[in-house]
Amino acid sequence: EVQLVESGGDLVQPGGSLRLSCAASGFTLSSYSMNWVRQAPGKGLQWVSYISSGGSTIYYAGSVKGRFTISRDNAKNSLFLQMDSLRDEDTAVYYCATAGTYAWFRHWGQGTLVTVSS
Amino acid sequence: DIQMTQSPSTLSASVGDKVTITCRASQSISSWLAWYQQKPGKAPKVLIYQASSLESGVPSRFSGSGSGTEFTLTISSLQPDDFATYYCQQYNVYPWTFGQGTKVDIK
Question: In terms of Cα–Cα distance, which of B102, B100, B91 is closest to B1?
């Protein structure tokens, strides 16, 4: 069974940093491109970042470009999101999600909550 | 960025009703559209990809249609488990974008 488990969400002050992790099991992570998608409280879904299966292609949403860094460790079946210079508007549940050849999201984790507040 | 606009934002319906949700793209996205269902406190679940392809395990009462800029998600006979929020997502052009959501609640 495919399973994605996010961790690392926490309460952090504006300007602070946080590193999210996504542990994959039940499949070989290296076969999939991966994404982070977030959802602010009571709001809709927003795609955040993409990394290709081998890690050579990376995209970011404009609102996080230059502040967030996506990476992966295929040997450890793990995906990461380094979040720096956090802002109030980054407060959200962050989901990791798989994508295949095309960028629709088949498998999702349960999400991890990031709260940015002083 | 491509804007995705869903209508209506909220829809009240009864069990057994036929429900249709519309998603419009600000420019042509061919058939590169997916539909998701999300229940409170849960992750989204894909229902439809490539505008009309039903994801494995999804009940056949769900169907998708459209191409270019206008798309629809139809639930042929609404079931109690279908009360949820539905999102469309385009994956034709980066950055991939979602509609604002359509909440289907009990009439």
Answer: B91
Whether residue A103 and residue B96 make contact (CB cut-off 8 A), yes or no, is yes
Across the interface, which of B45, B46, B97 has its CB nearest the CB of A47? B97
**Does residue A118 carry a pLDDT above 90?**
yes
E-assigned strands of B1-90? Answer: 4-7, 10-13, 19-25, 33-38, 45-49, 53-54, 62-67, 70-75, 85-90
DSSP B75: E
Mean pLDDT (whole number) for A44-65: 97
Find where tokens 């994801």 sit.
Answer: B55
Considering only CA atoms, which of B106, B88, B90 is closest in space to residue B21?
B88
CA-closest candidate to residue B84, choices B97, B73, B71: B73
- Please check whether residue A114 is in contact with residue A42, taking contact to mean a CB–CB distance below 8 angstroms: no
- Joined together, the tokens standing for residue A77 give 């079946």
Q: What one-letter code names the amino acid at B2?
A: I
Answer yes or no: is pLDDT of B78 > 90: yes
Burial class (CB in 10 A: 0-12, 13-18, 19+), B65: middle
Q: By the CB < 8 Å criterion, does A85 face chain B? A: no
